Amino acid sequence: MDTGIHAQGWTEAQAIDYALTNSPRPEATVRSEVRRYFNMPAQATAYKVGMLEIQRIRAKAEEALKDRFDIRDFHDQILGSGPLPMPVLERKIDDWIAASL
């Protein structure tokens, strides 16, 4: 919806129709989400990009640490410093991996 709204010029009604047709979410939830997408351009896209980056960084940590990888420690590292730019977060995880080997 975010891309439809901001790149393709969808109206609120078009975005709502799209979401109701393509998801099981109730209408009230869809309307709230659509309003958020109109008010915060690219928020959903940025969230998805961040999720994919964290998954990539996690896979790197799992590969490097093997049996030493602990999801709780990884989450502490990811969340412990608050929001960080992705390159900074990845350096932090790289340092954590090095210290854990």
Low-confidence stretches: none
The biggest sheet amounts to:
none
Helix-strand string? HHHHHH
Find the count of extended strands (DSSP E, 2+ residues). Answer: 0
How would you state the average pLDDT, rounded? 96
Derived structural class: mainly alpha
Number of domains: 2
Helix content: over 70%
Report the span from N to C terminus.
Answer: 43 Å
Give the overall silhouette: elongated
Radius of gyration: 18 Å
Number of helices: 6
Beta-strand residue fraction: under 5%
Describe the structure.
The protein is mostly helical. It has two domains: 2-41; 44-100, no CATH class. The protein contains six helices and no strands. The protein has helices at 2-7, 12-22, 27-39, 43-65, 71-80, 86-100. The chain starts with a helix and ends with a helix.
What is the topological layout?
Elements (H helix, E strand, L loop, with lengths): L1 H6 L4 H11 L4 H13 L3 H23 L5 H10 L5 H15 L1
Tell me briefly what this model is.
This protein is an all-alpha fold. The protein contains six helices and no strands.
